[in-house]
Write a structure and sequence with these properties.
alpha+beta, Dipeptide-binding Protein, domain 3, D-Maltodextrin-Binding Protein, domain 2, 2 domains, 11-stranded mixed β-sheet, 4-stranded antiparallel β-sheet, 17 helices, 17 strands, 31% helix
Length: 529
């Protein structure tokens, strides 16, 4: 007993007189990532972030994973302190990346971040039409991003698809959507493999996941479309259910002249009343995790007026610059009023695909939707005989079958075996590299607006402190991430506004990459070490 006491006294004395011998106080991070293949190589990313942060000697990371749907529920319940998020654009404008992530109204991420000055600048940028003014505002916004660091941008990805050699017409562009109706195959049925799945529903008033939007795009229709393969610039909008449009000089009124002779799947004629019904319904339901609530449709649109059978007028609350881009977004597509009740969202109905999807003005109709053990297994889309684009030769392929795979490895094996004609979201970088030299497949690449970033819950200490968040940001090495995890198939990202988008600035470069000196300095100033 005496020996133990002596040893304890010696240890305490040594720690007192020799501080370097004291156990270091470390920043502990419970770090979450999705494990269902919804985003590219999530586990590989998480393991590298852990290694990079722990190289500082002052940070310890515990990794946790959950499938995408579960992680989303946990995030919504405010129970996740730090996690890796991702975003693909709704409409092609910096506002889509800034409002949802950094304003008090944009609660989609549940970060609880609030900065009145940031809100003021975002509101000004939304209504400004002068590019020079917007550039100045977004410069200030991005500077505050770094100061507050509510999110840490990581990387931006390209779009990739792998197909059989005889498949044609795959278009990958900044919208990140695969337009089934453009794809040509010598076979009447085209099989598409994916690791995506439906998170909520295929209702425009609720579906806000990547695959939901893809399904809505291919089975529904909007007033306008973004020209396939374009950069979604001001001149890249093309007619959809509207054949022409105009706006008032103050930007507060938009008039759309509608296509005539369009029919829903039951033969009912499409007209202006269906447009008004669709927007009134989405803005009335305003479901918490819907696109309309996240983007703030109620803050933009005041009312929708039917001025004639084939003309509709949108009255706006603000002169919203990217309004046409918003109209081209699947969350603004037109539903069949007979299939979409005003009082609730349409959800999955086992064995009844028609009752599960209120969209039927697009090139395809959902013919079947099979789930096994509660998970998406297979969908079938058939060409819509009432589709107004039939006269122009669309869709190119009569039937689309979507098969859902549990992970990128299974998807890669499926395209290798010839079980699918198209592999789309997500494939591992190593598989993409191997496919590029495989004569039995064709690799398609296009620009992408997918970004990933670290998210902090600011009501969970110590992540309520911007200095802690900055310290974490400074320790990360984006170049290593891009080179080792993505094998050069992605780009480092230093802003929450994507590379190549208007008003982007590499704001986070001020914190450096693998800037361990800065991380240690900040954390020591906060009592760590």
């Amino acid at each position: 007993m005496l020996i133990i006491v002596i040893l304890v006294v010696v240890a305490v004395a040594a720690a007192y007189y020799y501080p370097s011998l004291r156990p270091k106080k470390k920043l502990l991070i419970d770090f979450w990532y999705e494990s269902s293949g919804h985003w590219p190589q999530s586990e590989d990313q998480a393991m590298l972030y852990k290694a990079q942060l722990e190289r500082t000697g002052l940070i310890s990371v515990n990794l946790h994973s959950a499938d995408y749907a579960s992680l989303r529920k946990m995030k919504d319940a405010d129970s996740v302190p730090v996690w890796v998020g991702a975003w693909t654009q709704d409409y092609s404008d910096p506002d889509d990346y800034v409002l949802l992530m950094h304003s008090e109204r944009g609660s989609f991420l549940h970060t609880h971040y609030m900065n009145p000055e940031m809100d003021r600048l975002i509101d000004q940028a939304r209504v400004a039409s002068d590019p020079a003014v917007r550039n100045r505002l977004y410069e200030q916004i991005q500077n505050i991003m770094v100061q507050d660091a509510p999110l840490v941008p990581l990387w931006q990805g390209a779009g990739w698809a792998v197909t059989k050699p005889d498949v044609k017409g795959v278009v990958i562009d900044i919208t990140t959507y695969l337009r089934y109706w453009l794809i040509e195959s010598p076979r009447e049925t085209l099989i598409v493999g994916t690791t995506d799945s439906v998170v909520a529903s295929l209702d425009v008033a609720e579906g806000y996941g990547t695959f939901e939007e893809l399904a809505i795009l291919n089975s529904g229709a909007g007033l306008v479309y973004i020209k396939p393969g374009s950069v979604a610039g001001p001149e890249d909008f093309m007619p959809g259910l509207a054949t022409g449009w105009s706006s008032s000089s103050d930007g507060l009124t938009w008039t759309f002249d509608l296509r005539r002779g369009v029919k829903f799947s039951d033969g009912t004629e499409f007209d202006a009343n269906a447009v008004k019904y669709s927007f009134d319904r989405s803005m009335s339901l305003y479901l918490p995790d819907s696109a309309q609530a996240a983007i703030g449709y109620r803050d933009i649109i005041d009312s929708v007026e039917v001025t004639s059978k084939y003309q509709v007028v949108f009255h706006l609350k603000i002169p919203f610059g990217p309004f046409l881009s918003l109209m081209a977004y699947p969350g603004s597509f037109i539903v069949n009023p007979k299939l979409a009740p005003m009082e609730k969202a349409v959800t999955y109905v086992d064995g009844d695909a028609r009752a599960s999807n209120p969209n039927d003005l697009g090139p395809y109709l959902l013919y079947s939707w099979v789930r096994k053990a509660g998970k998406d297994y297979e969908m079938r889309f058939d060409a819509n005989t009432n589709y107004w684009g039939m006269a122009d030769g669309y869709p190119k392929t009569k039937h689309i079958v979507v098969k859902f795979y549990p992970d990128p490895t299974a998807l890669a094996l499926a395209i290798k075996a010839g079980d699918v004609d198209v592999a789309w979201r997500q494939l591992a970088s190593s598989d993409i590299r191997n496919f590029q030299t495989d004569p039995n497949v064709k690799v398609w690449q296009g620009p992408g607006a997918l970004i990933q970033y670290i998210v902090f819950h600011e009501k969970i200490p110590p992540f309520d402190n911007p200095k802690v968040r900055q310290a974490i940001a400074a320790a990360l090495n984006r170049t290593e991430l891009v080179d080792t995890v993505f094998l050069g198939q992605a780009a480092p990202l230093y802003s929450m506004i994507p590379n190549g988008m208007a008003f982007h600035q590499d704001a986070y470069k001020t914190l450096g990459d693998a800037n361990i000196t800065l991380t240690v300095s900040i954390l020591q100033g906060l009592g760590y070490g």
